[in-house]
Amino acid sequence: QVQLVESGGGLVQAGGSLRLSCAASGRTFSNYLMGWFRQAPGKEREFVAAISWNGGNTYYANSVKGRFTISRDGAENTVALQMNSLKPEDTAVYYCAARRNPIVGDYDYWGQGTQVTVSS
After folding, report:
1. Kind of pairing, strands 92-99 and 114-119?
2. Strand positions, DSSP E, the chain
3. Residue 31 in 3-state DSSP?
4. What is the distance in angstroms between the CA of the first residue and the CA of the last residue of the chain?
5. How distant is the alpha carbon of residue 111 from its chain centre?
6. Is 69 helix (H, G, I), strand (E, B) or coil?
7. 3-class DSSP state for residue 90?
């Protein structure tokens, strides 16, 4: 059974940092594009960041560029999202996802999400 399990969410003050982690199991994701998305209350889910299968390419939403860093450990089948200089508008449920096609298409697997709350 394929699973993506996020952890590391919590409550933090504005300006603080959190590190989210996503553990993949059930298959190897070494050749998958891995991404992070988020959904705030009353809003649609939005893209946050993604990383290519070998970590050589990273992609960020403009709203988080320069503050968030995505990384992956192929040996451990994990993906991390380091979030610095957090703002109240970063408050959302954060989801880890995996996509087989490195260029286009829907994501194939999703985690259950982890809550991040940034207080002002």
Report:
1. antiparallel
2. 3-7, 10-13, 18-25, 33-39, 46-51, 58-60, 68-73, 78-83, 92-99, 109-110, 114-119
3. coil
4. 40
5. 10
6. strand
7. helix
Phi, psi of 53 (to 5 degrees): -60, -35
Interval 24-33: pLDDT, tens:
988 888 889 9
Q: Is the dihedral of CA 116, 114, 92, 42 positive or negative?
A: negative
User: Per-residue pLDDT tens for 52-92?
Assistant: 988 889 999 999 999 999 999 877 789 999 999 999 999 99
User: Which residues, listed in sequence order, are joined to residue 116 by a DSSP beta bridge?
Assistant: 10, 92
pLDDT at 53: 87
Which residue's entry shows tokens 């298409």? 105
Q: Who has greater pLDDT, 98 or 1?
A: 98
- Which DSSP category does 62 fall into? T
